[in-house]
């Protein structure tokens, strides 16, 4: 409960403002507008700042929410409270349809796509007869509870800010959960998250819908606030402005959305009332200042004002240490473990004319450490990608526990009990070590987005974090648990990746150059850890360049050169194998 | 429908499509070199068109002064960046490019605005003014952000669009303007009338498409520009001056934008905010072309123009809706044929 104190204090302040004597009614109108804008911006925070999906089209979702209630309540006399779920539903459904088309677009296509359908929908709103064309719809009834009709800005103020505070609470709950971690991992590419069972397209669609529903809520409130709607506030300009709000406040932070809304709404008001006096020009002067400010802000403070502000707070939020006595049930395994865990049979991968992996065959047995070595470009990492389903093989078979994996995606491969690390560290740098490692346990938790928002996931979540904490301590990084992953040294980040892979409770661990960047002592500790894992029944397949480390540790070594297997055997045999020496040194020594 | 209407709509569509093609090309060019998605392209169109129309009507356009003001800011940026090493030739270059050039153009404009000059003089001056604005904008806004993500560049681009559009209203007012035609000759073929202006549109568009295609495909410098887009650091390591590449891209894009504006302002009335919509239609074409392909962009632009012409005839109310939703099936196709997952950096 303690971490909720700031929110409660804020809520009390917000509730008290209208009762302060002498507050001009005009301020309350501004605060209403800030709340409406903050709701949309909060959705954008999740979508753009956290999820990395930029949308210029949020204003259209506000329009869906506003028009739904406008049509139903003004023209069919439906109670505004009944239209609330419908408004949210219409915005959500629109988001599903548009999201299915757009969220899979990569990079810059997505924002451009949102700009295009944002404009298209704006023109649609302004041309459809039943939406009143450019004149819109007026005579929308006010919200009312019993005999209290929220006619003036001072009364609907409470409805708007209750919506803002509840949404903020739900959004923060969502971010601080299993689903939230999956969302936060989206911005840094998909491969790592997918290797631990996260379905990126699904997570993207989820945030897309979430942001649209928040925008729809804002639209519903807006319609009953102004009691008339027309297409203008739902156009491209408004969509751009919402993004501006999020960027100003700090697109990565829930409260950044609220702060940004406050700054932009007040700034706009001030500019609109004073600029014309200053410059004696006609209209739209504030857009000039807006544009210039936006560019200046991007150059000086690209992360927005909220993080700048919180960095200056005298106190820091305390990180809670997970209760490691909680246990996650072990991953389900077949009762009898056959001797051969992994069988790679004639695997081949071609990129155009380049044969990266040329009909390679080898196996990994139970309780065995196998090393895959070879000069740079030998196809070791590609072999890893074939095994874990990141790349489909051109031909050949890979089977786990006797069952062919086929073209299974990474999310299915990890379910078989194969987890991995990456040659180029793929952690989310602005998440803590604990949160990063907990992504590894993603498949061992079950709570979805809704239960996270309402905090029904706490039991499940505590177990996930406990498992993550246990694995972090196991690899010896207990002291760094609450640091940001990006602040660790490269060697430590590799170890964090191992902890994350261990959270899967794997039977086979694939390590891509785990010892690179480690100091001597750290290498020794890593070697000891891997032996301990083997003793516990796990198998390890590793790619490594440090020959001393490999020769010391591995039971068996497979050597690749130019994508072809040139040798296989015990470390002693490999050391004297003439083919291997030739591959490494260029000639028979 | 009869053939006359069909042909007329086709001709109208192709003329508009050619303009969209020019804009689409400029967008592809800027994106390919700097990774900036140039939303303010529409403002270059408006500025070009309205500067030309103002000059032709004997008025002094505010854009000429703007060019000097932001040139001054750009020069200040350059001076600040070079404060540690006072390299005289480089300062002289920055001074010439950012300050002396727009001031000279401003003086010429002031002189020309008083006496009615032929349309050609107004055209050249308008192009120079907008080109100078484009050049300084790159220095002030995008060069400091060159290392950031496409997304940050895109948002900055939107900021520039807002500012330029607001300034456009300030300079040219809310009323629409038209300019004098460049070529008055015309020919009739059957029921179709080919105006000199229309022919100029076709000719210039084709010249640019072929020119850009050849430049980027065949010349070493064109390839250097493309290399800058793919990997700035790598390009710098092999000796490509990435700043120069960006300057050239913006110079070309703003010139092309202004030229498109000047080509259409005799045909349609332009307002201070018309450019944005025109630019966005160029975008649709550029996106269909994948922001990479010049010929594909040109073909797509023609399709956009023709679809627009036909929908304005049959469902004029929904013209914009149809044109913008044209993008959805394209996006759908692109997402179905999505390439293997690429890692994105921040």
UniProtKB/TrEMBL annotation, chain B:
It is found in: Cell membrane. It is a multi-pass membrane protein. It comes from the Bacteria. Its main location: membrane. The chain crosses the membrane at residues 17-37, 66-82, 94-113, 119-138, 150-174, 199-222, 248-271, 283-309, 321-341. Keywords: Amino-acid transport, Cell membrane, Membrane, Transmembrane, Transmembrane helix, Transport. It holds the Pfam family BPD_transp_2. Belongs to the binding-protein-dependent transport system permease family. LivHM subfamily. This is Branched-chain amino acid ABC transporter permease.
